[in-house]
Design brief:
Largest sheet: 12 strands, mixed
Oligomer: single chain
């Protein structure tokens, strides 16, 4: 039954408001200061004092600036933390985010073309086509995607491929690149409709990728094939390493077996039973590269593996919904930071599963856990290295309450050795394929 709002209802609403003794005071407060300032809780700030029982020394905070590369920054930051410990590089040392960014963009273009060809028989009104064309490529990504890039192309220090205008402020490039990709999609779908041969389609796709490479080189600079690496360590000793390739640099200075690092998620929705593997249809960057794979676990296990890795002295990549119940300037993420429900006298509580199912929350940002405060061996708050520069939080570091982690954290990446034996066995199972628009496929 369809029913419009009528005059009787409006009269009832007005009377209901006037019957609240506090309504005039709250109206003045909220119209003047806004919802967040009016509902901010001072006690949360006191509780989120940035002191931790485990606190890794990770050097200076990086700055992704006006780009969406948080997932990439977070991954490279975990690696540079290890380089800092092994080689005593300066505290402001960084791996080149521009280098991995270049290759991610090129590979995403190819991945997009392949998805366009796989779905070319579907009408443009199909949901999959709509999903593909909404954002052919973007800055965001996931852990397995940066692994795919590094396994193919290696890494370099930032000195070998510094930031450019377009890597630090990516909107101009992304809008232009997506225009090109959509235009290319028209051509590829037409060729399939006209029954062009595989060889003809491949030749056209190769030309499209050649154009893409040129656009990337003009915008980000061309990636180095060989380079020298010079630095002074913490003891002021000079080091010079000549004729390195990106692959040799990774092998020597990072040296991780990336296959040991696995994505652990907490997605407590009915369609994703815990202790099973999941992947996402049409999500990735490198064709035939590392597959997106998530092990879904309960929150207790999620926290335990993160603590175990921090206790071992290694930082933890994680993904969350950073805009929820957080103060960017103070660097606080806490479920008690604001009390909007009390202000409006409305129950705004949703379960984590409900927020995922109904579009209220999903992973929007990746950062790094670099510390935790354990009381009676249980976490109460976590130290977070962000990638928004030093002017936010405490020199760029945030504090996250344990309750906030429970509600708004969705992914951590840990060495599989920290998993219980039964879950290490689960890693071998074939993953269930989720729809492209599943919240666990969101890009940080």
């Amino acid at each position: 039954m369809t029913k419009a709002i009528d005059a009787t209802q409006l009269s009832k609403f007005k009377n209901s408001l006037k019957n609240r003794a506090e309504h005039a005071v709250l109206e003045r407060a909220v119209t003047k200061n806004g919802i967040l300032a009016t509902t901010a809780d001072y006690h949360s700030e006191v509780k989120m004092d940035p002191v931790f029982s485990i606190d890794l020394d990770t050097g200076d905070v990086a700055n992704q600036k006006q780009s969406g590369r948080c997932w990439m920054f977070a991954a490279l930051n975990t690696m540079r933390h290890d380089i800092k410990n092994k080689f005593k590089v300066p505290k402001d040392f960084e791996l080149s985010q521009n280098y991995t960014y270049f290759w991610d963009k090129l590979e995403k273009a190819n991945y997009f073309y392949e998805n366009v060809l796989k779905t070319a028989s579907l009408p443009t009104s199909d949901r999959k086509i709509s999903w593909l064309m909404t954002t052919p490529q973007q800055d965001g990504g996931q852990w397995d995607m940066i692994v795919a890039i590094i396994q193919k192309y290696g890494v370099v220090p930032q000195s070998a491929m510094p930031e450019t205008y377009n890597s630090s402020k990516s909107n101009e490039f992304n809008s232009t690149f997506n225009l090109k990709l959509r235009k290319d999609a028209v051509k590829l779908r037409q060729m399939v409709a006209e029954q062009a041969s595989d060889a003809q389609i491949e030749k056209e796709k190769d030309k499209m990728l050649d154009d893409a490479y040129r656009m990337l080189a003009y915008s980000f600079g061309e990636p180095p094939v060989k380079f020298d690496f010079a630095y002074r360590d913490a003891d002021k000793a000079y080091h010079l390493d000549r004729d390195l390739t990106p692959q040799k640099f990774f092998e020597k200075y990072v040296g991780w077996n990336l296959d040991d690092y696995v994505s652990i998620i907490n997605g407590p929705t009915e369609d994703k039973p815990f202790n099973h593997m999941y992947t996402v249809d049409m999500l990735g960057n490198v064709v035939s590269g590392r597959q997106i794979r998530h092990l879904n676990v309960d929150m207790k296990t999620f926290r335990q593996v993160a603590v175990a890795q921090l206790k071992a002295g290694e930082s933890v990549w994680f993904g969350c919904d950073v805009g929820q119940e957080s103060d960017r300037q103070k660097g606080i993420m806490d479920t008690e930071l604001y009390h909007k429900d009390e202000l409006f006298d409305i129950d705004l509580n949703m379960s984590k599963a409900e927020r995922l199912d109904y579009g209220e929350s999903l992973m929007t940002h990746a950062m790094v856990l670099t510390g935790v405060d354990l009381v009676d061996d249980k976490p109460t708050k976590w130290k977070v290295e962000n990638s928004w520069g030093k002017k936010v939080g405490t020199n760029g570091f945030f504090v996250m309450s344990n309750d906030w982690m429970n509600e708004f954290c969705y992914q951590v990446v840990v060495n599989k050795k920290h998993l219980p034996a039964n879950l290490q066995n689960v890693l071998q199972e074939d993953p269930k394929v989720l729809a492209p628009w599943d919240p666990m496929g969101s890009l940080a």
